[in-house]
Amino acid sequence: MSHTLSLNLHNIVFLVIGLTVVKLTLLGLGFLTLVKATKLRTFTVDNQRNIFLKDGQPFRYISGSLHYFRVPNMYWKDRMKKMKAAGLNSLQTYVEWSSHEPEPGMYNFSGELDLVKFLKTAQEVGLLVIFRPGPYICAERDMGGLPYWLMREKMDIKLRTNDPTYMKFVKKWFSTLLPIINPFLYKNGGPIVTIQVENEYGQVGICDFEYMTSLRDVLHDYLGKDVILFKTDIPHVGAYKCDNIDGVLVTADFGSGTNVKKAFETIRLFRKSGPLVVTEYYPGWMGHWGEPQANVSTKMICDTLDDILSANASVNFYMFHGGTNFGFKNGANMKYAPQPTSYDYTAPISEAGDPTPRYISISKIISKYVPLPGPLPKPAPKLSIGPLTLNWISSLLDAIPFLKGPDIVYSKYPKTFEELSQAYGFMVYSTVVTFITTDPAVLNVPGLHDRGYIFVEKKFMGVLSRSERICSLPLQVKQDQILTILVENQGRINSGNILDSKGLVSNVTLGSTILTNWLIQPLPLNNTDAIRSLQLSESSDLKNALSYSTSWPQVPGFFSVNFTLPKSLKAMDTFLDPTGWRKGVVFLNGFNLGRYWPVMGPQVTLYVPGSLLHLYPNNNTLTVLELEHAPCFPCNSIYKCSISSLPSCSIKFVKIPILNGPTPYLSLNEKLHKGQYVYH
Known about the structure:
3 domains; disordered N terminus; glycosidase; transmembrane helix; B-gal_1-like; Jelly Rolls; 24% strand
C-alpha cells in the first residue's frame, strides 16, 4: 500500500510538472499571439496603390472635426456617437497650446482640457483620430491658439519661424505634449493614425523651411519616424511651394463647389503618389460680429462630397460639430473683425449637439460608400426659463475693489495686457488731466486694441472702436478731472500677422498733449468666486463703497439674479436670450458663457449646456456685465417715460437659438456681387 502511494505521489508530481509546462507553453503562445497582433496593428501609406493601409488592408477615412476645448467633456461621447452614426470612422482635433499652458511651465490637462480622456473616449466609441498639435492652429481662436505670453517673453518675437526664442518654447511644449499622446498612436494601441505638421503654413507666406523641418524632426524624435505626418493648404501652387518639405503627405483644404479633380491634380504636382486627402472640407463657414451667418448650399456640399468620395479620397469635415468659444477665447480676422461666441459653423451637428437637416443629407451621401451603423439620432429636448428680472449690483468701476483682480500698476505711459501678464478680459486706464484744455478737446487713441469706453469723472462719454476705425472723440474735460479708458480685448488676430497686443499699445493725446502718469487696473474677470459674490444683498461693503446715490442702473455695470429650477425639470440644454441688452458678458454659476452683442448680430442667443445648471433645490446665479445699455436704463430727453413704464432688466432662457439675427454689414455674397469684398 505504501508502494502504491509512493507511485501515486510520483505520478502526481510529474502531472503537476506537465500541467505547468503546458500552461507556460500556452502563456508563451498567447504572448507570441499578442506580439503578433501588436505587429499587425499598423497604419501605413501604400504609394503604389495611392491608399492608406490599416493593419495591411486598404482604408480611407471619413472624418469630422470636433474640438474638445469647445465642448463640455460630459458631452464628448454623445457628439462622437452622433458622428459615427452619420458614417464617420474618424474624428479630427486641434490641440490648443494657449489653454494647456496659460503661463510658462503651468500645465492644465484636466476638466474640459483632459486630452487623455478625449482620446480614450474616441477609441471607446470606435473612431480613429487625425491629430493636429500645431503649435499654431488658427481655428478662429485667440492668437491662433498660441499663448499670449510669447509676446511678453520677447515683444518682437517672430512667431511661426525658426526664431530661437519661439522654438525654445515650442520644443518645451512639445516635450510635454508628445509623450502624453505617444501611447495613443495607432501602432501603440491607440486611435491616432496621422499627425499634422504646423497648420496651413504655406498660406501665411513666411516660407521658413527650417522651421517646418524642425517641427517635423521634433515629431519624429518623440513619436517615431514611422508615424504618418501631413501638411495642408488650399490647393494652390504658391502655398504648396512655401511649406514643401520631405517626409509629409500633401493634403488640401477647400469648400463646396471646388473642382475636386483640379484640386487633386495640384496635390500631385507636389506629391506624385500616396492617398488623396481633404483635411478641411467646409460644410459651413466662420462668422464675424456684424456680418450675416454663412449660408452654404446643402446640395452643393453634398455634390462636392460625392466627388471627393468617388475619387477614393479621405476627407474630413471642418467642422462636423463646431461647439462654442466659451469665455474670452474667440479670435479675430484682419482687417480687425472679431468673431462671435458661437462656433456653430452651420455644421451638420449644431452648437447644442443636435443633428441638422444638413446632417441627414450628408449621411445619405456617405451611405453610398459605407454602411451606416444604425438609426440616425434625433434632436434633444431643450429648456425654457423666465423671463427672470435681474437686479443692478454696481457699476463696473465701483466694483473693481471687490473683483479681487491683480494690483493696480502705475506707469508714465500706458502698458499693454501682455506687459502686465494679462491674457484676456478688460483693462482700466486712468489719469488726471493736468492742464487747461480747449472746449471741446479731441481725445485721440490711435493704439486702441480693441474697444474703449471713455469716462470723465466716472461719467460715460462715448465708445471708440478698432473694428470700426473710430479712435478719436471730442470731450469736454476740465483741468484736474480724471479721465478713464476701459479697454476690452475682443480677441487676438488668429491668422496672418498674429502679433496682436491688447490694451493701449501707443500713447494717448488730448488736443496736442500726450497724457501721462497712468493708473492701470487689470480686470481679467477670471475670479469667478468674486463675480458670483457680487450680490448687493450679500455685500454691505459694496453698498457703502458706491461713490454716488442713485436708483438708476449705471453701465458698464453688473446685474444679477438668483433662481431655482422647478422641481420637475431635468438637466437640459437651453439658450440665453439677451434681447434688449446691448453688449456684454454673461456668467452662469461662475462659468463664463461668453460675449453677447445682439445689436451687431448675427448671434443673439448664448448656448447654455445643461451641465452648468444646478437642479432643484440648488440655487443658480446668473450675472451679467452689461457694458453699454441695459433694458431698464433711465429715460432721457429723447425718450420720455415714467418710472412705471420702464421695461425691467429681464432676460430669459429659450428653446430655440437665434444665430442669424439682423446685422449692419453685407453678407459675403453681397460683397462679392458689389465688388466690396476684401480678403481677410
